[in-house]
């Protein structure tokens, strides 16, 4: 069955829960997207920028040292960290910026947590000559100061959000308020597979280039499909991008790594699928971390990009149907993986990606040498090095209870 359905539902998840003023804009975006993806010239231009500007296809690298260290299956790394701007985020940013220009919009707004989506949106806007405003939680502007400077260099205006927990959730709220006010002139360039229909579908489709390339590359390299896919899940865009082209292949197991933060039992985590329950949040019905009254609870992760109380609705569907398995990874485990991949392969991953590596570290030693594993390295860790250095030198308490 092809999902979402005509109403934007993945099973019981997804849909549109927005103010009436935004409905025409969402309908305009859906119509424009459905026309664009059937337009050979649009696809040709998108592929041109993927190849000549972003540097696609990204490599699928056989991690011989990590394979030897962990034992078990052969491990391949999908190197989205080598994409221009340093993460998978540019795939979607280029696609939506081209779509916005096609709709006649001259201004884009975006939200960002780790800064990678903000940098990607600012980059795409600069490329296409568009005004760009990025909302970022004040807490995240401190954690990711380098990316704030990169966005400003690219010509974007970064607005720190001081409301709430001053993280990604609050940045999304502010971006939505801006969009409601300026919907006639502005495209909201959402950075993950979240929000009201058609965003989860559009972002997934632009990110599916990750899985499409992986499928082709692993067949060329090994002659068969992988047995296991690993990716981190905050909103879930890099994971959906990797998973989507393999969903019909029942022999390919899909693993998502959520942020357990200081430990699920501490309440300081961001594991929506592991410890949340279904509810409406920021325009869609999906798993959400909420209290008994349905109020969104504060979340925490050492990784700014995973520090979000919701998840894309298609992930909720994959969880309930059992097609994908989601496991929470603590800050401590992610930091161990961050250091291990750096030492064994000379690749410093983003803290987000380190969660996927950490989950693979738990599963791979129990697999056979004939099995094949792909881990999506969704971004590079330059942005996180100072934060990790500070945590490790101070010996801050990070082990989950």
UniProtKB/TrEMBL annotation:
PROSITE patterns: TRP_SYNTHASE_BETA
Entry-linked Gene3D superfamilies: 3.40.50.1100
GO cellular component: cytoplasm
Record PTM N6-(pyridoxal phosphate)lysine, positions in chain: 89
Domain Tryptophan synthase beta chain-like PALP stretches: 54-379
InterPro entries: Trp_synth_b_CS, Trp_synth_beta, Trp_synth_beta/beta-like, TrpB-like_PALP, TrpB-like_PALP_sf
Enzyme Commission designation: 4.2.1.20
Catalytic reactions on record: (1S,2R)-1-C-(indol-3-yl)glycerol 3-phosphate + L-serine = D-glyceraldehyde 3-phosphate + L-tryptophan + H2O
Pathway: Amino-acid biosynthesis; L-tryptophan biosynthesis; L-tryptophan from chorismate: step 5/5
Molecular function GO terms recorded: tryptophan synthase activity
Keywords: Amino-acid biosynthesis, Aromatic amino acid biosynthesis, Lyase, Pyridoxal phosphate, Tryptophan biosynthesis
Cofactor: pyridoxal 5'-phosphate
Subunit structure: Tetramer of two alpha and two beta chains.
Function: The beta subunit is responsible for the synthesis of L-tryptophan from indole and L-serine.
NCBIfam families membership: trpB
Cross-referenced HAMAP family: Trp_synth_beta (MF_00133)
Family the entry assigns: Belongs to the TrpB family.
Protein name as annotated: Tryptophan synthase beta chain
Organism expressing this protein natively: Neomoorella humiferrea
Gene designation per UniProt: trpB
């Amino acid at each position: 069955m092809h999902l979402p359905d005509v109403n934007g539902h993945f099973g019981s998840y997804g849909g549109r829960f927005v103010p009436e003023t935004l409905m025409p804009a969402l309908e305009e975006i859906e119509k424009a997207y459905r026309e664009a993806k059937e337009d050979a010239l649009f696809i040709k231009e998108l592929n041109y920028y993927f190849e000549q500007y972003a540097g696609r296809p990204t490599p699928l690298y056989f991690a011989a040292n990590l394979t030897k260290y962990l034992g078990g299956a052969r491990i391949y790394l999908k190197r989205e960290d080598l994409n221009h701007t340093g993460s998978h985020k540019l795939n979607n940013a280029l696609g939506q910026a081209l779509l916005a220009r096609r709709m006649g919009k001259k201004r884009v707004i975006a939200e960002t947590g780790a800064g990678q989506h903000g940098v990607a949106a600012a980059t795409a806007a600069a490329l296409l000559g568009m005004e760009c405003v990025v909302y970022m939680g004040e807490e995240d502007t401190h954690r990711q100061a380098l990316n704030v400077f990169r966005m400003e260099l690219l010509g974007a205006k970064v607005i720190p959000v001081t409301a709430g927990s001053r993280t990604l959730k609050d940045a999304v709220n502010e971006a939505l308020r801006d969009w409601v006010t300026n919907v006639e002139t502005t495209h909201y360039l959402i950075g993950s597979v979240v929000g009201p229909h058609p965003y989860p579908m559009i972002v997934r489709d632009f990110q599916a280039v990750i899985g499409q390339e992986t499928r082709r590359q692993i067949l060329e390299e090994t002659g068969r499909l992988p047995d296991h896919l690993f990716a981190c899940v905050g909103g879930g865009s890099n994971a959906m991008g990797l998973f989507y082209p393999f969903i019909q292949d029942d022999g390919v197991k899909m693993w998502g790594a959520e942020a357990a933060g200081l430990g699920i039992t501490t309440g300081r985590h961001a594991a929506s699928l592991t410890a949340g329950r279904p509810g409406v949040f920021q325009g869609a019905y999906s798993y959400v971390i909420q209290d008994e009254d349905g109020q969104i609870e504060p979340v925490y992760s050492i990784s700014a990009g995973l520090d979000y109380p919701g998840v894309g609705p298609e992930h909720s569907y994959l969880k309930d149907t059992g097609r994908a398995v989601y496991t929470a990874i603590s800050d401590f485990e992610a930091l161990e993986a961050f250091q291990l991949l750096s030492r064994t392969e000379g690749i410093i991953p983003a803290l987000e990606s380190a969660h996927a590596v950490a989950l693979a570290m738990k599963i791979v030693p129990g697999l056979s040498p004939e099995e094949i594993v792909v881990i999506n390295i969704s971004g590079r860790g330059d942005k996180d090095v100072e934060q990790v250095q500070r945590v490790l030198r101070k010996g801050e308490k990070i082990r989950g209870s």
